Amino acid sequence: QAEIDARFAEFDLSMSTFNPNSVISRINTNDESVRTDAYFNAMYRQAVEVSTITNGAFDITVAPLVNAWGFGFGKQQRDSTPDIAALLKITGFRKITLQGDFLKKADPAIMLDASAIAKGQASDVIGQLLEAHGCQHYMVEIGGEVACKGLNPKGEKWKIGIDKPVDDPANESPELQTIVAISGVGLATSGNYRQFYYREGKKYAHTIDPRSGYPVNHRLLSATVVAESCMKADAFATAFMVLGKDSALSICRKFDDMDCYLIYTDDDGKLQV
Predict the structure, then answer these.
(1) Which has the closest alpha carbon to 143: 117, 119, 127, 179?
(2) Confidence at residue 93, expressed as pLDDT on a 0 to 100 scale
(3) Would you place residue 72 in the very low, low, confident or very high pLDDT band (cuts 50, 70, 90)?
């Protein structure tokens, strides 16, 4: 436990936007002395790969948009529509580059938010710690993102439940949509059924499309991805929530080592898979 806690603290000091001393927070405040570490570099490489494949549907520079819509680490302003045109000028994964251990920004106002990839990465990191101690069978779950290897105590693959996407912000009565059996992979789910708010009768969900600057508005409610790492699954699950059902499926089908499980509403408002 002590080693896991120490590893978490180390990871937090790299990736947490809520920790003012973390690498990512210091990059956001343009601290010239900050240098990236192995956690950040691994996250950055994976993020750029997913951003490129999804044509910007996944983007770690989305922080100013997420904050402006009242879902991020800034002050929760939810009473008006933000100035999207201004925000898009400081959004876009091609506006940042990693040069050695220094992150270069095209504009100092650019800010990073790795929350759509870091939880998955954290699950991988703890899994690797367990493996370093000779553990062959484990299931690590952090914030709903799972990294697993080997078999469960019954000698079977790990059985992971996927929640039914019902409006349940506090997660008080989770119903399972299905159960999947997995091993040696990461699983992550992204959804729009927990974090949302209403303003003037319109629902605003927390998944922001980095390309348009607006919260997504389509019928995909939940995207679960199974991939070689939980970090990769986490990023693609978020991208799929931005892309919607058809585009998500077409991208997923290009990869032999990736699967997805998408839950959406049909014309009659019924859940479909």
Answers:
(1) 119
(2) 97
(3) low
User: Nearest-CA neighbor of 184 among 143, 144, 226, 154?
Assistant: 226
pLDDT in tens, 81-129: 789 999 999 999 999 999 999 999 999 999 999 999 999 999 999 999 9
For residue 74, what pLDDT band results from cuts at 50, 70 and 90?
Answer: low
